[in-house]
Specification:
heterodimer, A: mainly alpha, two-stranded parallel sheet, 7% strand, elongated, B: mainly alpha, 77% helix
Amino acid sequence: MVLDVSPEKRQYRLSQLQQVFFEDLDKFNRPIAFLFDTFEQATPELAQWIEGQFLSEVALNPKLLAIVAGQNIPQSSIEWQNYHHCCRLDPINELEAWCLYCQEVGYPFTQEQIKMSILIAEGLPIRMVQYLKIAAQSWQQL
Amino acid sequence: MNAEFLARLTQAKTEAEKDWLLTELSLSVLSPELRVMALAAAVPHWFDADILAALQPELAGQAERLYKELQELSYVEVFPGRGYNIHERTRKVMLQQLWETDPEEFKRLTRRLVEYFAADETNRIEQIYHWVVADFVEGSSQFTSYITNLDHNYRRSEAEALLATLQEQINRVPDSFAADLVYWDGNIHYRFYEATQALEKYQTALSLYQTVGARLGEANTLQAQGDVLQFLKQSQQALEKYQTALTIYQTVGDRLGEANTLQAQGDLETDPNLAIAKYQTARQTYIEIGDQYSQARILAQSIAPYYRKLNQPQAVVAALRQSIQICKEMNYIDFIPQLETEIEEISGEIS
């Protein structure tokens, strides 16, 4: 509601809000991490703020850390491009990783069966989790 | 089952087909009522036991139990502060499948959600998201009314969220709606003086309206382009847009659009007599269609200032008095003190 005003007032209020927000954060004497998922679903205005002023402030303060995940990610700018690391989340095709997962959730599959599951689900985590769960339920059919 | 599944998976050509096959397999191992509920739960962006009960009233007695069972599924995740949701990727294929195989059931579920969210003003975006599919005529009218309100009140983030959310339904609504969304995106940019982005959006909207033959949308977009060009002081280009818009409004018989365009043309007219003539024609049209608000507005904001420019104070006062009279008739009193102040100032100047 504080932003339901004309563009000029809105800009002023946003800058004021941002200033006090980061001043407040600065009072914490421990590191703070921000985690954003599904960045692609952010509204254009919010996305612009995150990739602009927000990440610029995060880059300036060594106590702050931000993780932004999504099908789109912020375009790096001169203010923070030297402070970020970008990693692509590809399908997980490493057999060891899925063996460990099966062990942790209690699925009694052999390495061969897990290898087969990776081929079927193409290593995509959501498909793997779905398929392994069904397979565990109908063990005979794998 | 596994051999057949593998064969189908091998034949699947797209990622969406593969996702659906796996989802179908996951659904097949569920109890019938949980399967029905899982598919229904994909329709809203999030769900809780109450939403599940509203979606499938015949299973309402089991909603709490099914809600707990749904939480155990691998493709169900927490929706912070509101309950749970089907994972985006799985939800997308479930919706696509439901829409392709049983659009009536899809619409029935969305109708129930329109009713469910009617009780909750805070979820208006979610309600309209379902409304445009359940009943496009009423839903799109609700969309226009809500986004107009957001636009007038500078509620940009909500307007952008509404547009992005409705974009998901684009394959389930008439083609012209895609153009409506881009047109409104342009309006939001223009509200924040982002003229270049607004013009880009309007140009896209115009092409889309022309492709589907939506002439009223085309005229509205041309007029909006004219407004931005006028703001950028590109008067000649603005006049050309207004003239094309005017012709379309006259062709389709949209008299309000016609009057608004005449008024805009008057604003750009350099010849005072022609400007007043445009305004008077526009005003006459407002009278004929019974639009009192626009009559009051054109008298106070176009005709009076123009007479002032022509140094005809008596005509200025007469126009403002007429405007006040109309405001009183329609009980639009907020506008009156400002007009009375102007009359006092001009009367002072005359005396």
